[in-house]
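[recover] target loaded
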C-alpha cells in the first residue's frame, strides 16, 4: 500500500476498539513473571554456557600484555575470547564504538576479554584472573575545555543540518530592543533501564539465533551482519519482551556482538549479560551539551531573531546531539541561526536517548523563553502563544499538518490554575516551603516509516498478527491487537499479536517516537488485504462490505467471519510505504508542561508537588497506554531536572557513578500526582490510522518547566542541570 494523500474515512474511524482505554494484552504474563526477557530464556538451547566481560581499566591507549592462562585453567572455563581469537569484527551503521579492544582501547570499560564457563559464577571468578597491562595515552575527557575551539559538525545521516541560517540573524539580533544571550549546560545522562543488556547466542552451522534485548530488529540484523561479516539472512533475532530501552538498545550493543563471537569460539550457546556497573561506560549514553541561546524581540514581545549554538562531544566519527532541532521548528522569528558543534572525546559513545536533540535542547530553550518573558514583563504562557506559527519557521511555504500548541497552552493554564502564579519570584510561601509555578512548551518530531505486517484468519475466527515490532514496555502488543480488531470487526481478545522476531515482517521498531504510528499503519495495510480475501471467499463485493461484531455484512446478508477460513487459513501480508506528505507538511507533536515545586527555605531541598502535561499527538490509539507513556516521560523529566548526571573523571576519563547507587533516578517519593491530558485531534497526513507517537513528547519540556518553577519559587536562576542544592544554597533569599 502506498500512502501519498491525506487519509479520508476508513474502518479505523469507527472507533469501536481504537481510541478506547485498553488493558495490556501481555499484562498477565508480566505480572506473573511468565513473560520471558532476554536473559530468562532457560531452555531455547541445550548445553548453555555463560559469558562474563572483562572491561578495560584505562580510557585511551593500547593493551601491552594480555595474560589469560590462569583464567583458562580455572574450574569450568570453556573459552576465553580476546582480540587474538575473536576474528575480524566490523562496525554497524548507527553506532561507531568498537565492541572489543583490539588491541587499541577507545574508552574505559571497552571489552578486552570474554570469559565463557559452565556457570555464571565460574565465568565471573575466572574473569578476575585475567591480567592486562596497558600503555596509557593522554585523552580528551573535558567538554568545556573544547568550548572555544570545537568545529561545526560535519553533515551526518541523523540529526538534521549542522548549521542553518534564515535571513540575517546577527543584524536582527543587534537591532532588537530586547535581547537575551545566555549559556546553558546539560550533563551526560544514562538510560538506566530496568533490564540490563543481555543475549543468548547459538550457532547452527552458519546460522545464528540470538534471544536478545533490542529495540529495532531491522537495524539489529543489519548491524550484527556487518559486525560479524556474514549475510543478514543467516541471522535471526528474538526479542518479544524488552525491559525498557529509552534508545539505549536501539541496535547492536556489546552483549549481542560478543555473545555471538563467544558462542562461535566456544562451539556452544552462550548467555551473556552486561553487569550493571559495566553499562554506563560500555554502552551509549546521552552526551553532555553546552548551549548558547540568543533571542531578540520587539518591546511588545514578538521574536525577531533567534539563535542556538550547541556543543557536544563524542568518539571520533560519532554523531551530534541535535539540540537545535526544537529551536528550528518551535517559534516564529524571521531571522534565525542554529549551529551544532562537535568535539572529539575519549569517553563512551554518545548517542540516542529518549528524544535525542529535543530533550536537552528544550532544557535550554524553554528556560531562555522564560527569561525573555520576564525581560519583557510578559506572562510566559502569553509570550509563547504570541510567537506561535502555523508554518515551518525555516520554510514558510510549508504548513504544519496540525499544530494545536496554543490550545495546549490555554487548556494547561486553565486546568493547572496558572492564574495563581506569582509573577514576582519568591513571593509565595507554604510554611517552610517557598512555592513556585513553572511551565514549558514541548515539541517532538512526528516520524513514521515503512512498515509491514502479516495477518492470518483461522477457522476459529481468530486473527493472528505477526510483525517484528518490539514492545519495550510501551504497549505495542495492545495497539497492534486493537488495530487488527478494529479492521476485522472483532474484539481484541480474538486477536493474537506476535512481536519481536526478525523472521516476521519488517517494521522500524521502537525508537524515535515512530513505532506506534508505523506499525499500526502496516497492520492496517495488511488487514485491508485480508478483508479483500475474506470478502472474495464469501462472495461479497469488497467495496461495500462491513466487518462488525465478528461478522461480515453487506446489505441484508451477514456471515460469521470464521466461515471464510473453513477451507483453510487466510493469510495476507502487505507493506505500507509513504509518499511525500512529510515534505509537504511539517509533522510534529506538541505539548505544554506545568509544574509546581516547593523549595525548603532553609535547606534548599526541592520537591515537585504536582505536574500537568497537555499533549497533542494525533489520534490516541490506546489512551490508557498513552497516559502511562506520558507520566513515565514526566518522571524521567524530574530526574533530568533535579538529579541525573554521570560525573566525568576528567583525569582518568570515565563516568565515576557507574551504577544505580551513584547515578540517581527518581523513586516513588520523588514523584507526586502527575496528570496527562490529550487534545482530541487526528492527523490525516500521517497514515490511515491518523496517529502520531507519544513516547518522547511526555519527556521533552518537563525539566525546564521544573527549572522555571524553581526560579519562580526562589528567584535563583539555575542554567546548569541538574538543579542540586549546591547551586541554590548560597543564592537563596533570606528565609525569614
Amino acid at each position: 500500500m502506498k500512502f501519498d494523500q491525506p487519509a479520508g474515512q476508513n474502518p479505523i474511524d469507527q472507533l469501536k476498539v481504537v481510541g478506547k482505554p485498553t488493558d495490556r494484552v501481555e499484562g498477565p504474563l508480566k505480572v506473573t513473571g511468565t513473560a520471558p526477557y532476554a536473559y530468562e530464556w532457560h531452555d531455547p538451547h541445550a548445553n548453555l554456557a555463560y559469558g562474563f566481560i572483562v572491561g578495560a581499566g584505562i580510557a585511551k591507549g593500547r593493551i601491552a600484555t594480555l595474560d589469560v592462562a590462569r583464567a583458562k585453567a580455572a574450574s569450568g572455563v570453556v573459552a576465553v575470547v580476546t582480540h587474538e581469537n575473536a576474528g575480524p569484527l566490523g562496525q554497524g551503521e548507527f553506532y561507531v564504538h568498537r565492541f572489543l579492544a583490539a588491541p587499541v582501547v577507545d574508552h574505559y570499560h571497552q571489552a578486552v576479554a570474554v570469559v565463557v564457563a559452565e556457570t555464571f559464577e565460574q565465568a565471573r571468578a575466572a574473569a578476575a584472573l585475567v591480567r592486562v597491562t596497558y600503555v596509557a595515552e593522554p585523552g580528551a575527557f573535558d567538554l568545556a575545555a573544547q568550548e572555544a575551539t570545537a568545529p561545526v559538525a560535519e553533515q551526518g545521516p541523523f540529526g538534521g543540518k549542522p548549521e542553518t541560517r534564515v535571513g540575517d540573524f546577527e543584524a536582527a539580533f543587534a537591532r532588537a530592543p530586547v535581547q537575551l544571550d545566555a549559556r546553558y549546560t546539560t550533563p551526560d545522562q544514562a538510560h538506566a533501564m530496568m533490564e540490563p543488556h543481555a543475549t543468548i547466542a547459538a550457532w547452527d552451522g552458519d546460522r545464528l539465533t540470538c534471544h536478545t534485548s533490542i529495540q529495532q530488529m531491522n537495524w539489529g540484523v543489519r548491524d550484527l551482519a556487518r559486525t560479524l561479516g556474514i549475510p543478514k539472512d543467516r541471522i535471526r533475532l528474538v526479542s518479544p519482551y524488552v525491559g525498557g530501552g529509552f534508545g539505549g538498545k536501539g541496535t547492536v550493543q556489546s552483549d549481542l556482538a560478543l555473545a555471538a563471537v563467544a558462542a562461535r569460539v566456544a562451539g556452544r550457546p552462550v548467555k551473556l549479560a552486561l553487569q550493571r556497573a559495566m553499562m554506563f561506560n560500555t554502552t551509549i549514553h546521552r552526551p553532555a551539551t553546552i548551549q548558547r541561546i540568543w533571542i531578540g524581540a520587539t518591546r511588545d514581545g514578538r521574536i525577531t531573531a533567534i539563535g542556538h549554538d550547541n556543543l557536544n562531544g563524542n568518539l571520533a566519527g560519532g554523531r551530534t546531539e541535535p539540540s537545535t532541532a526544537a529551536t528550528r521548528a518551535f517559534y516564529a522569528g524571521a531571522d534565525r541561526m542554529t549551529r551544532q558543534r562537535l568535539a572529539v572525546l575519549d569517553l563512551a559513545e554518545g548517542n540516542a536517548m529518549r528524544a535525542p536533540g529535543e530533550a536537552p535542547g528544550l532544557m535550554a530553550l524553554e528556560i531562555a523563553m522564560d527569561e525573555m518573558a520576564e525581560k519583557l514583563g510578559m506572562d510566559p504562557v502569553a509570550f509563547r502563544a504570541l510567537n506561535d506559527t502555523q508554518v515551518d519557521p525555516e520554510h514558510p511555504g510549508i504548513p504544519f499538518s496540525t499544530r494545536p500548541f496554543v490550545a495546549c497552552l490555554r487548556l494547561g493554564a486553565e486546568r493547572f490554575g496558572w492564574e495563581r502564579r506569582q509573577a514576582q519570584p519568591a513571593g509565595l510561601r507554604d510554611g517552610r516551603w517557598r512555592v513556585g509555578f513553572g511551565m514549558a512548551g514541548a515539541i517532538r518530531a512526528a516520524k513514521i516509516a515503512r512498515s509491514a505486517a502479516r495477518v492470518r484468519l483461522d477457522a476459529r475466527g481468530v486473527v493472528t498478527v505477526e510483525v517484528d515490532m518490539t514492545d519495550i514496555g510501551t504497549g505495542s502488543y495492545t495497539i497492534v491487537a486493537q488495530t487488527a480488531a478494529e479492521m476485522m470487526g472483532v474484539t481484541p481478545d480474538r486477536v493474537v499479536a506476535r512481536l519481536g522476531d526478525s523472521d516476521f515482517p519488517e517494521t522500524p521498531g521502537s525508537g524515535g517516537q515512530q513505532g506506534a504510528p508505523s506499525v499500526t499503519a502496516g497492520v492496517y495495510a495488511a488487514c485491508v488485504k485480508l478483508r479483500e480475501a475474506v470478502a472474495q471467499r464469501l462472495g461479497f463485493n469488497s467495496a461495500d462490505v462491513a466487518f462488525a461484531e465478528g461478522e461480515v455484512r453487506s446489505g441484508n446478508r451477514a456471515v460469521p467471519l470464521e466461515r471464510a477460513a473453513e477451507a483453510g487459513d487466510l493469510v495476507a501480508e502487505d507493506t505500507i510505504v509513504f509518499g511525500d506528505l512529510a515534505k509537504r507538511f511539517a509533522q510534529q507533536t506538541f505539548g505544554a508542561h506545568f509544574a509546581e515545586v516547593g523549595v525548603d527555605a532553609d535547606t534548599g531541598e526541592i520537591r515537585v508537588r504536582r505536574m500537568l502535561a497537555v499533549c497533542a499527538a494525533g489520534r490516541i490509539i490506546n489512551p490508557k497506554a498513552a497516559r502511562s507513556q506520558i507520566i513515565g516521560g514526566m518522571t524521567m523529566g524530574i530526574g533530568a531536572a533535579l538529579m541525573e548526571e554521570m560525573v566525568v573523571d576528567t583525569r582518568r576519563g570515565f563516568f565515576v557513578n557507574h551504577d544505580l547507587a551513584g547515578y540517581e533516578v527518581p523513586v516513588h517519593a520523588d514523584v507526586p500526582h502527575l496528570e496527562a491530558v490529550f487534545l482530541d485531534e487526528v492527523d490525516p497526513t500521517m497514515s490511515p490510522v491518523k496517529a502520531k507517537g507519544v513516547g518522547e513528547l511526555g519527556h521533552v519540556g518537563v525539566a525546564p518547566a521544573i527549572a522555571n518553577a524553581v526560579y519562580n519559587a526562589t528567584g535563583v536562576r539555575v542554567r546548569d542541570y541538574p538543579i542540586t542544592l549546591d547551586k541554590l544554597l548560597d543564592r537563596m533569599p533570606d528565609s525569614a
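[recover] notes: The first strand starts at residue 2 and ends at 3.
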